[in-house]
Backbone:
């Protein structure tokens, strides 16, 4: 058995994405992702996936070079290696990230977002070498299937006229009836029983009405609303008061730990976050102030699957719930999320996933949701296989792009429909 990494391949791609609305604007017709492949001396390939914007690519390239010659089981070494790769701090020192929806942006978080893809690829290669599934390398699964929630979005029927795109079959969802119709489709197609609505798009009264309509259509089903910090403390408390009887939790109603702590002090509705606790450094203040009751982990920016387990252990210690956040992603990441989620005890909330929105993938076989759950694979590694032809097609799309779509920019995508659009300052309401 030879675990030496002999080569690393990076393939940036553009993946079709429907016109999903959020506080920043709207999803572009194609979104960038990066596929990482790690090859070992034994001819084994491990795969990983992360954000594909230029700043991630620029970091991934020197990292990939340094990885050659190292051992695929040297997972801790990935973090020291990452520290050796220089980051242009100017571009990441501000608070604004590519989507502005995943909390603070720091050089460290950028590094972790890149390391995570390599960690997943190394675990996949190691698992394939040893004949063990990734969950076994993480200590073993404690459940056989991981539950996901339907991730509902306000959306247009199509991207603006004249924009090159793939047509989706979800239709428009711009009012309570549209949101309920979308939820019905999610349930029909995937069997989801929890629903999360991405809010912060319309005035809170309209979003309250949409959640009420969901509660009527799906009595007793867990419901969440996530306006990505678009509301003031006062508005957050008003919404929490009006929806207290139907919400499983309210996600990032207000921006930042101090505001979330104020909201938390004024309501019994649990608060979840993927914006104010996104790094280990942010945990202490948020937990001490009881600002959040559920942390939504994301292995991409937390730095991988083992860091996600560490986060879960800290949450458990403090009696804070843990579940999973998602951003546009493909099957490799869904497989990685499922493996790590299967190892986390006390995962009481269904995880988020954008996967149903992605009609394209780079796998020979798409992952499936049965009754809203993904079965944990016991095959060696992640249990997925790359489809080279599909990968090549999506990579060609990236090569053909003049650069406009290579950075995710939801505000720029919105300006195609509304040239006056500027991302609203928060709190907006
Ligand atoms: O895909 O538009 C989106 C979401 O708004 C995403 O970017 C968020 O980061 O899903 C995320 C969230 O839960 O805030
Ligand atoms: Mg969120």
Residues:
């Amino acid at each position: 058995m030879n675990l030496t990494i002999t080569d690393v391949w990076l393939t940036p791609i553009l993946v079709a994405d429907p016109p999903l609305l959020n506080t920043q604007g709207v999803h572009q017709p194609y979104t960038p992702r990066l596929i990482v492949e790690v090859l070992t001396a034994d001819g084994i390939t491990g795969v990983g996936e992360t954000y594909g914007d230029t700043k991630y690519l620029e970091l991934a390239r020197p990292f990939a070079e340094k990885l050659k010659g190292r051992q695929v089981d040297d997972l801790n070494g990935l973090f020291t290696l990452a520290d050796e790769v220089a980051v242009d701090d100017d571009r990441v020192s501000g608070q604004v990230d590519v989507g502005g929806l995943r909390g603070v942006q720091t050089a460290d978080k950028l590094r972790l977002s890149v390391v995570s893809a390599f960690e997943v690829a190394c675990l996949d290669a190691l698992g394939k070498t040893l004949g063990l599934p990734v969950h076994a390398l993480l200590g073993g699964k404690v459940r056989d299937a991981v539950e996901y929630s339907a991730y509902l979005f306000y959306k247009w029927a199509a991207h603006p006229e004249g924009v090159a795109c793939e047509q989706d079959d979800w239709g428009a969802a711009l009012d309570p009836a549209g949101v309920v119709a979308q939820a019905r489709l999610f349930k029909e197609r995937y069997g989801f029983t929890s629903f999360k609505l991405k809010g912060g798009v319309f005035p809170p009264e309209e979003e309250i009405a949409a959640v009420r309509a969901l509660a009527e259509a799906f009595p007793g089903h867990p419901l969440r609303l996530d306006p990505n910090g678009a509301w003031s403390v006062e508005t957050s408390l008003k919404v929490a008061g009006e929806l207290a009887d139907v919400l499983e939790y309210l996600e990032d109603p207000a921006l930042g730990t101090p505001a979330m702590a104020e909201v938390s002090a004024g309501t019994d509705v649990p608060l979840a976050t993927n914006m104010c606790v996104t790094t280990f450094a942010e945990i202490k203040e948020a937990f001490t102030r009881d600002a959040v009751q559920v942390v939504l982990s994301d292995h991409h920016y937390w730095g991988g699957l083992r860091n996600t387990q560490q986060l879960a252990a800290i949450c458990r210690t403090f009696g804070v719930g843990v579940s999973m956040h998602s951003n546009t992603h493909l099957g490799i990441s869904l497989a990685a999320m499922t493996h790590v989620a299967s190892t986390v005890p006390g995962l009481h909330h269904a995880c988020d996933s954008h996967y149903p929105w992605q009609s394209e993938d780079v796998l020979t076989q798409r992952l499936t949701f049965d009754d809203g759950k993904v079965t944990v694979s016991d095959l060696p590694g992640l249990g997925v296989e790359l489809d080279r032809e599909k990968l090549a097609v999506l990579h060609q799309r990236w090569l053909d792009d003049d650069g406009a779509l290579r950075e995710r920019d939801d505000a720029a995508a919105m300006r195609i429909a509304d040239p006056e659009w500027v991302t609203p300052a928060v709190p907006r309401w």
